[in-house]
Amino acid sequence: MATPIHVLFLCTHNSARSILAEALLNHLGRGRFVAHSAGSQPRPNQQPNPLGLEVLREVGIPTEGLRSKSWDVFAAPGAPVMDLIITVCDNAAGEVCPVWPGHPATAHWGYPDPSAGDAPDAVKREAFRAVRDALTRRLQALVQRCPDPADMASLQRLARTLAEEGV
């Protein structure tokens, strides 16, 4: 088997969208992809949003080991080298990111924050499901259309095309 493609999903708090993307790609990628997630301002106590974990478990996605973490972890010496970095929130896309080892491909896939606002949990749960399902469609397309082996230029082109297609 070829070396897996390492993907880092970034969101400001690393508690909802990026956690969903990490878990989904690790499941869908079946070892061909290794997904990670991080944030510029991770959630206190390194806890993902419970509703995010709930909607992952609803569809049989494992949630063990998921935690909020700083993006500094992935810019430090000895960190896994990323092949692709995808921002999943508009705030993170506008922030000054660390310098990533290996000069990975980049893309922005913006999704609304399902945890934002004061809506009741039932409404937020539906928002989490909508983001989960949208991410699933886009990640399935990434897994299916990614060339093997993937080079940085084709990986970036594909990731950005998927953003434009609105899969």
UniProtKB/TrEMBL annotation:
Catalytic activity, EC: 1.20.4.1
GO biological process, one term: response to arsenic-containing substance
Enzyme class: oxidoreductase
Residue ranges constituting the Phosphotyrosine protein phosphatase I domain according to the UniProt record: 5-145
InterPro entries from the UniProt entry: Ptyr_pPase, Ptyr_pPase_sf
Alphabetized SUPFAM superfamilies for the sequence: Phosphotyrosine protein phosphatases I
Alphabetically ordered keywords of this record: Arsenical resistance, Oxidoreductase
Entries under Pfam families matching the protein: LMWPc (PF01451)
Signal sequence, start to end: none
SMART domains in alphabetical order: LMWPc
Superkingdom, natural source: Bacteria
Gene Ontology MF, one: arsenate reductase (glutaredoxin) activity
Protein name according to UniProt: Glutaredoxin arsenate reductase
Organism of provenance: Tepidimonas taiwanensis
Gene label: arsC
